[in-house]
Design brief:
Blueprint (H helix, E strand, L loop, with lengths): L5 E3 H15 L4 H6 L13 E3 H15 L4 H8 L6 H8 L4 H10 L10 E7 L2 E7 L9 H18 L8 E3 L9 H7 L2 E3 L5 E6 H4 L8 H33 L1
Helix pairs in contact: 1-3, 1-4, 4-7, 5-6, 5-10
Length: 246
């Protein structure tokens, strides 16, 4: 691999806050072991390697001895935790528009190789996330946190909760639980090749009270510039790696 995938550092901050606030566990030693600089959390848009983040999820789950640790982390998530993507989300005209921004600017959250798309199918909209094998599997806790966080973000912008009408998860069937069906409030299948959430299209097209077109356009530009900077960093890292090998 010529470059190292990265993740928004604020996600690591959420993990630390959850360990300390919900479980009474000092996170400093865990961050020190993984060489994660906690001072970076105060820098907007700062990032850490996906490998460190993946290990952080693993160790945090082990130290809490809670297989549902990801749910607790996701429940703490707020739009402000996701840098410019969170602001773009809040200013979107519809939940469909917000989900499209999530698909378009997913690399703000992580460059680890997953692909998000929102497809129109008859009277439904289908949100699909597929994973690349290039960087290895994501921790279950990370997936759980993402599920919960996305629903929490939706609740921030809609007057009434909007939930999928069906969900297919890549989660192993051995983890089948009412925790998932209660979270999504719909039928859930397990062991799928992709995360697939099917929505009633009409619910996603309702106008949102926080719609501010000028802010949405401004945050779109910032998000695009930020992602370009990540791509530039990726290219620069790849070039340096190739030079060192010659």
């Amino acid at each position: 691999m010529l470059y190292e995938p990265t993740t928004l550092a604020s996600v690591a901050r959420l993990i630390g806050d959850c360990l300390e606030g919900d479980y009474g566990i000092d996170a400093d030693s865990l961050f020190a072991e993984l060489k994660i600089d906690r001072t970076k959390f105060a820098e907007p848009g700062s990032r850490i390697s996906f490998a460190k983040m993946n290990e952080l999820w693993s160790r945090a789950t082990a130290v809490t001895n809670d297989p549902w640790f990801g749910f607790a982390v996701g429940d703490m998530a707020r739009p402000s935790d996701f840098f410019v993507l969170g602001h773009a989300w809040l200013a979107s005209a519809t939940l469909k528009g917000a989900l499209r921004r999530l698909c378009r600017y997913g690399h703000v959250l992580t460059t680890q190789g997953s692909a998000l798309q929102l497809l129109d199918r008859d009277d439904t909209c289908v949100l699909i996330e597929s994973y690349s094998d290039a960087v290895g599997p994501r921790q279950k806790a990370a997936k759980d946190a993402g599920f919960v966080a996305l629903l929490r973000l939706s609740d921030f912008v809609t007057q009434e909760p909007v939930r999928p009408i069906s969900v297919s998860l890549t989660i192993d069937p051995e983890f089948e639980s009412t925790r998932y069906s209660e979270l999504f409030q719909c039928a859930v299948t397990y062991g799928a090749e992709e995360e697939t959430w099917v929505y009633d299209a009409r619910e996603l097209e309702q106008q949102l009270a926080g719609n501010i077109p000028d802010v949405a356009q401004a945050t779109d530009r910032i998000a695009e510039d930020y992602i370009r900077s990540l791509d530039s960093g990726t290219v620069a890292t790849a070039v340096r790696s190739m030079i060192m090998q010659t």
